[in-house]
Please model this.
Amino acid sequence: MRRFGHFNRLGNKSFKMKRRLESAVTDNIRRHVLRILKQHGYPPDLDSEATKLVLEQAGALWAGWPR
Model:
């Protein structure tokens, strides 16, 4: 029974690591999008909606990406 607990902990660690990587990638994309929007004079009050749209599109693109 102790072995199964070990596998459970490994699964939790890998899940946490995956989440951490996903949030790091999302933060990086968000930072790049905001910089590009600022460079092209996009209104600051609309940048959160544009960033959300880009992240949704990136997620859709990633879902179709071969693994």
